[in-house]
Amino acid sequence: MKQFAPAKINLYLHILGRRPDGFHELETLMAPITLGDTLHLDLISTGIEFTCSDPALSDAQDNLATRAARIFLEEFKSDTGVRIHLEKAVPVGAGLGGGSSDAAAVLLALRELTGIKASDSELAELAARLGSDIPFFIYGQPAVCRGRGEIIEPVKLKETYQGLLVHPGFGVSTPWAYKTYAQNPQQGAPGRSFADVTLRNDLEPPAFSKYPWLPTTKSWFREQAEVLDSLMSGSGSSVFALTRSANEADTLRKRFLAEFGSTLFATSFSVMNQAGH
Ligand code: C5P
């Protein structure tokens, strides 16, 4: 079976404090977007087989997708195996939740393929053991996420958010971003307010201080006539710009590539406001 694994953007990310477990207490509005990976899954008699279109991930037997398969089959005492092929479209280390969404997609697909009766909240509980933002992808719709990210409150957004998403070709380490934030906690600069949200990402200050490409790109976006506002997603390194229409996002995309280099990753996107499964 084929399973789409959407990426996410954070429309805001507020860090509320440090927790006794070392994680940070968050309140973040996350939304799945039309960019995503595609997984192909088949049940096999035994074992977990994994291949990937990205050679860098191919031999990683310990990636999130295979770990999700293992935890699902163990938890529900299933004696079947699974073959997974992952077509990677979402940049890695980009603050887009690509690996987390792949893991959630494996859990959702295995529930369907095996016929095991597990509720979304049971799957989300399994997902939380694998990573903080994986439960969000079980629900697959915009949500305010709290705790370390695993407490999910789905919301229906009033506006259609769309625009351009770009990635510099290097990643930002999430543990590094939180650690650097903890050394000098400061809020991200608040941006423009929309019906549902005032854009703000508290992981921008640490990421911007180490990687000048990020604030340069955000500032450039904010000077472009099509752009409503711009923000880094998650712990970076991707930056998105919201526009009024897909046409404007496309015009912006061409200008961005001409200005910043034609080999960079740049894709137009829209937020998915309905559950995708
Ligand atoms: O849960 P996940 O593996 O995605 O988190 C990666 C790292 O990001 C954690 O090990 C932690 O250092 C940091 N983190 C955090 N607070 C959160 C989420 C992640 O400090 N709410």
Tell me briefly what this model is:
By secondary structure, this protein is α+β, with helices and mostly antiparallel strands.
How many individual β-strands?
11
Could you give the distance between the termini?
A: 13 Å
What's the mean pLDDT score? 96
> What low-confidence regions span 5 or more consecutive residues with pLDDT below 50?
none
If you had to describe this structure to a student in words, what would you say it looks like?
- With 277 residues, the protein is of the alpha+beta class.
- The protein contains 9 helices and 11 strands.
- The protein has helices spanning 55-58, 64-75, 98-114, 120-130, 134-139, 174-183, 204-210, 213-223, 246-260; strands spanning 2-18, 24-44, 48-52, 81-87, 143-147, 151-154, 162-167, 200-201, 227-232, 239-243, 265-270.
- The strands form 2 sheets. Strands 1, 2, 3, 4, 5, 6 and 8 form a 7-stranded mixed sheet that branches. A 4-stranded antiparallel sheet has the order 9-10-7-11, with helices on one face.
- A hairpin with a 6-residue loop joins strand 9 and strand 10.
- It is globular and about 55 Å long.
- The model has no long low-confidence stretch (mean pLDDT 96).
